[in-house]
Amino acid sequence: MPNLQSVLDEIAHDMASASERGAVARYIPELAKVDPARFGLAVLTEDGTLHTAGDADEPFSIQSVSKVFTLTLALGQVGDILWNRVGREPSGNPFNSIVQLEYEHGIPRNPLINAGALVVTDVLLSGYKPREAIGLILSFMRGLADDDSVFIDEKVARSEEETGFGNRALANYMKAFGNIRHAVEWTTGVYFHQCAIAMSCRQLAVAASFLAGEGKHLLTGNRIVSRERARRINAVMLTCGHYDGSGDFAFRVGIPGKSGVGGGIMAVVPGKASIAVWSPGLNKVGNSLLGSLALERLAKAMDWSIFAP
Amino acid sequence: MPNLQSVLDEIAHDMASASERGAVARYIPELAKVDPARFGLAVLTEDGTLHTAGDADEPFSIQSVSKVFTLTLALGQVGDILWNRVGREPSGNPFNSIVQLEYEHGIPRNPLINAGALVVTDVLLSGYKPREAIGLILSFMRGLADDDSVFIDEKVARSEEETGFGNRALANYMKAFGNIRHAVEWTTGVYFHQCAIAMSCRQLAVAASFLAGEGKHLLTGNRIVSRERARRINAVMLTCGHYDGSGDFAFRVGIPGKSGVGGGIMAVVPGKASIAVWSPGLNKVGNSLLGSLALERLAKAMDWSIFAP
Amino acid sequence: MPNLQSVLDEIAHDMASASERGAVARYIPELAKVDPARFGLAVLTEDGTLHTAGDADEPFSIQSVSKVFTLTLALGQVGDILWNRVGREPSGNPFNSIVQLEYEHGIPRNPLINAGALVVTDVLLSGYKPREAIGLILSFMRGLADDDSVFIDEKVARSEEETGFGNRALANYMKAFGNIRHAVEWTTGVYFHQCAIAMSCRQLAVAASFLAGEGKHLLTGNRIVSRERARRINAVMLTCGHYDGSGDFAFRVGIPGKSGVGGGIMAVVPGKASIAVWSPGLNKVGNSLLGSLALERLAKAMDWSIFAP
Amino acid sequence: MPNLQSVLDEIAHDMASASERGAVARYIPELAKVDPARFGLAVLTEDGTLHTAGDADEPFSIQSVSKVFTLTLALGQVGDILWNRVGREPSGNPFNSIVQLEYEHGIPRNPLINAGALVVTDVLLSGYKPREAIGLILSFMRGLADDDSVFIDEKVARSEEETGFGNRALANYMKAFGNIRHAVEWTTGVYFHQCAIAMSCRQLAVAASFLAGEGKHLLTGNRIVSRERARRINAVMLTCGHYDGSGDFAFRVGIPGKSGVGGGIMAVVPGKASIAVWSPGLNKVGNSLLGSLALERLAKAMDWSIFAP
C-alpha cells in the first residue's frame, strides 16, 4: 500500500498544473467569481488521522453536497415514510430536469437531484419555521464537521434567491401535485441557504466520516445513524450522487460520492476513509472535472473500491 | 455469522409458501408457460463450496442475465472502445424503452438494457457469422459454468424470433444511426439465442463467480478478466442491472446483480460469494419479485453489502 | 339552408337532456361549483343579427378563451416580434405540459397553451403595472362585447391565485430561461385575472365577431385588427385552439375555435358568423364535451366549414 | 384579382435566382442527387384551366405527398374504422419520431407522419398482396392525374429499401403493439414504393383537384370521395400536413397542404384551385423551403385563404 500523504501530494501537484479544468458554474453569479485554479483534497482515515493537500482549508460553497446531510436529518426526523414522497432511482436526466416530474406526477426520482432535495427540505420544515430549519441544518453540519466555524455564505444565498427560478419552478410544480406542503418561498428559502453552506475540504471530509464508519463518526465516535441507514445512504449516493454521470463515476472511481456545482465532491470508502475534494471547474454533466479525476487516481492508488473485497 | 445452508433453507421454505409471487412474463409465449411456483437458490462461496436450496438444479431461461456475459466477451474482443458505442449510465426508463435512443442519437445508455445489449451482440458479430457467434457464447457459458450441459432452449429462441418486434425496432432504429453494423436479422438472431440459454441456479452461481473473485473463477481458479474489469462490470451491474429498479435493489440488497425476465437474478458479493436465484414471477419493473426478496433476506442474514467494510 | 334559430333551439333542447355531460373542472375550486346542467349558445351572423338558445345570458368563467384576446392585444402592442418569444405550432401535449419547455429552452409552442399565454401576458406588462394591465384587458373585452357589464369574477381570480402552482411553475421555469421578464407574481397575477373574466355566450359571440369579419367587428363595424392578422389569429386557433384535441376539432367541426376549462368555446366562421357555446362538463383533453358536439351539429346543419368553398 | 399566370411567372422567375434554397434531403441517397436549382409550379383552377411555370413537367419523387392519397384509398376501403388505428392530432415532433409511439402504445398521432402512413399502408394490404397493393396505388394515382405516364422510380424505391431502417424501426415497434398486421417487410415494401412515385407538378396539381372540388375531380368531374370526406382530409392536411411546421404553414400560407422530402408540396384552395410546387431544398423541419415561400406569395397575391370568406 502506498503512502497516503504522498499520493495526495502528488495528485495535488499534478492538478495544480492541469490545463483543462472545466467551466465554473455561471448560473449562480456568486459562484462564477470563484478562482478556477483552486484545488483542495482531504482524507480522514478510519483511525482518525486527517491528511490534506492543496487548498484543503479554504471554505467553498458545498451546494448539492448538502443534499446528503439534509437527507440524513430528514430520515432521522420522519424515518422511512420519507420514501413515499421521493424515489431512489437514478434519474437519467440532468440535475434540474422537470420532465420526469410530469410523467411521474410530482414524485422526484431521488433525493439527490434538485427536485428531490426540495421535497426533503420541505419535510424538514414540518416542525420548524424556515429560520429554525436553517439553524438546525447549520448546527448539524457544525457538529459533524466538529468545527463551529462552518457558516452560511449569505452572499451566495442571496445570489441563489435572486436567480433560483428553476428551483422555484420545480417547487411550484410539485406543490401542484401536493408534494410540497409549505409555502414555496419557505421551502426554496431554506434550500437556498443549505446550498450556500461554506466548508473546507478538511471540514467536509470529517463531516462525511459517519458514512464511512457505518453510521459512527470516525473522529468523535458518535453514532449518527444506524449501520443499515449508513449503508443505504451510501447506496443512494452511488446510484444517484453525480446526476447523469453517476454510472460513469461508479465505473471509474468505484466508491459512493456526492458532487456539488461549487466544485466539491464528498466520497466515502466504507470502513476505510472519508474524502473531500474541491476544484471549481465542472464537466459537462455538472460534476467537478478535476475533482472526479483526483478521486479516480486516489482510489486506484490506494486500491479503494466497493466492488473489490 | 449464521450458517449459510440454514439461511438458504429457511428462505427457500418461506418462499415456497409466499402467496404474492408476481406475474410471469407473458410477452414471450414460451416463458408464459413456466410454473410460477418454482424457486431455486444457489451460492458459491470464495472457498469453492456450493450451497443450494429449492429447485436449484432446474434449468430456466436466463434471458437478460446473459447481457453480463456477452458484455464480458465483447470487452475481451475489442476492449474499452466498446464504450464509444454504448454508455454506462442508468437509463431511468423501462428495459425496452426507445425514447432515450431518439434523444441520444442511437447510443444506448448502458449495455444491460435491450438496446445496449443488441449493440454488444453486434460487436461480437465483427469476427463471426451468427452461428459461430452463438456457438462462441454457448461455449463461454459452458466453460464458466464448468458444465457442458448448458444449452440453448430452441423453443424459447423460436418464440423470441416470432414475437421480438420490439427488439427489431430497437435494432433498426440504431442501424438508422449507424450503431448496428450487421444485418438486423443477424444481430437480433444472435441476441434471441443468447437470451434463450437455459441454466440452473447452480450453473449460474458458478458462472458468475469470476465477478466475485476479482476476475478469477472461484471454482476453477482461471482468470477470466482483469481485476479492474471485474470491478467495473460489477459497477455497471450495480447501477444498471435491474432496469428502472436498479436504485431500489442497491438500496435494499446492496450488492451488484443482474436480473432477467425469466425470473433469474445473478448477484455477487466481491471477495465472498456468487449467487443465483430463480422465481418466475416478476414485479412491476420486470425483476423477479421473490428473487429480489430472497436476495434482500440473504444479504441481511449474512451481513453482505458492498456499502459496508 | 335551414333556419338558424330552429337549429339552435333544437341543439339546445337535445343538449338539455344529454346524460353524458363530461366532468366539471375541479382543479380550480370555484369552477367546481358550477352547475353541469347549464347550456348556452349564441351566434352573431355577418348581418349583425344575434341568435341565442338556452342559458345564453348567464355569465361563465371564460378561462383560456381569454388567451385569444390577450394575444390580439399584445400583437397590437408589439407586433410580430412577439413571435420571437412564443411559437405557433400545435403542442402535441396537454394544456399545462412543462416537458416541451425543457426541450425547447423556455419558448412555448404557441400562445394558446398556458405557457404561451403567460408569455403573452408578460409582453402586455411591458408598459403597465399589473392593475393597469388587468384594467386594459377588461376594457378591451367590454369594448369588444359592446357591453360594460363584463366583469372579473374576483372569487374565481382568488381561487386561481390560491391553487395556481402549475402556472407559477411554468412562469418560473420560463423566467429561468429569460422568457418571463417581470416578477412571476405580476405575470401570473394578471393571468389569473384575465382567466377569471366572466361573460355570457351572447357577449362572447359579439366579442369574437372581429375574427369572423376579417378584422372588422360585425356589430359595431370598428376595425380591430388588419385582415391579415385576423386570418392569422384564426389559423392559430384552428391548429392550437383545443389543446391536444385541436386536430379532432378541425376534423369534426371544421372551423377555428378556442376552448376554456370553464366550459366555454368561442368559434368563428370567416365571413359568416361568430359563435359562443357553454357547457361546463369537459372531455378528457379538457374541452367542453357538449360544447364541441353542439358546434359539430351546428356546423353540419348550416354547412359551415373552412374546408369548403 | 391579379392575373394568375403573371403571378406564377413572377414567382418562378424570382425563385430561379434565390440564393438560399435549403438543403436537399440526404438520407435517401437517390434523392441527394437531385439538382437543387429546379423549381416548378402548377395550378389547376375550378374551371379546369391549368397554369404552370418553371419545371412543371419534370417528374420528381413525391415521397410523403403520397400519404394523402393512400389515406384516401384506405378510407375508401375500410371507412372511418381506420381511425381506431391512427389518430388525427398534430404530432409536435419531427416526421420520423418514435418517442410518441412509446407514450401512446403504438397508435401514431396522425396518418401524415411516417408511423401513421405505415399503418395506413398496412390497412391497404388487408385485401392484397404487396405487388397488388403497389399496383392499386399506382393506378389510383394515374387515374387522379389523368395521365398513365405516372410511374414508380425503381431506383428511388431501391434506395429507400436499402436505407429505410428508421421506417422499419417504426413498423416493428407498432407491430410489437399489434398495430401492424402484416409482415414488416410487406408493409415497408409497399410504403417505400408509394414514396417513390414520380410525378410532375402538372400531374400532382391535377391529382389533388378532388380535394379542391369537395370530392369531385376538377378536370374529369368524377366524384372521388364524399364532400364530408374531402373536407376532413383537408382538415387533417391543415393541422398535420407539414410535420412540425404545420402551424407555421397554416399561419403564413393559410391553406391545407402536404409536403414531401422530395421537395414537393401539394395544396388546395377549397372551391377554387389545386396547386403543386416543387423545389428540392428543405427547411429545417423538412419542408421545401422555396416551395413554402412560393405558396405564401401565391396565396397572398390571389387572396387565397381558408381563414377568409
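Chain D has two domains: 4-61+198-302, 64-197.
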